Amino acid sequence: MQRSHEHQERQPSAGARPADPTGVHTKFNLDGSVRAFPGNTIICHLAPASRLYAALSSLYGALEISDLAGLYTLLPPSSWHMTVFEGVCDQVRQPGFWPDDLGLDVPLAECDALFADKLSAFDLGSAPSYRLRIAGWQPLVNGIALRLAPESAEEMRLRRVRDRLSELLQLRHPGHEDYVFHLSIAYLIRHPDEEQRAALSALLFELLSGLPDEFELGAPEFCRFADMFAFHRQFFLRRQQSGG
To answer: Which pTM does this prediction carry?
Structure first.
């Protein structure tokens, strides 16, 4: 299967680009070390038994030893996941990023507890697994991430779950309708120059051929995190069993 990589070339105008990628000074330091950035989220972890996990491990190794490695900080394989619903970040407290039914000054622990209570009774409503295909790389703006494209029926199912979670949790992020499913591999810690961007794009396109066309993810998980290196599962969202 041919996977397009033309979207890698679309870049924001030079005047609009911030001095550093957006993950720097928030999620990561300039040297690539991780910063505290607590919050909660609903994700599907990539299982170590997955064919994609094994293939990404080889890709990870290639990125780790690349001459371009100074441009990015790699995320631990144990953190690899697809976000189903974004949740909140403690450091981002403004309408659209914080639940409508909680004050903006409420401690994160209170938000975690409210979400856990609501989600414990949430009915996933369908089989707790998802088939996805790899559609290329996200644009090289703030990180290295695979763009994921569910088949039409699966996408409708995921979009419906997102809408129901938004309603339940009283949280609707900007761009909710157009959210692009993805799996992050690394965050950029400095903007590549033109030559570096071309080299990194070429490397990623070469490595893409070693990944499976399709893969499967299990049930969404409500997770808490202290930083971007680990997402701690609190429980799986589940399909509620009818009584009787």
So the answer is: 0.91
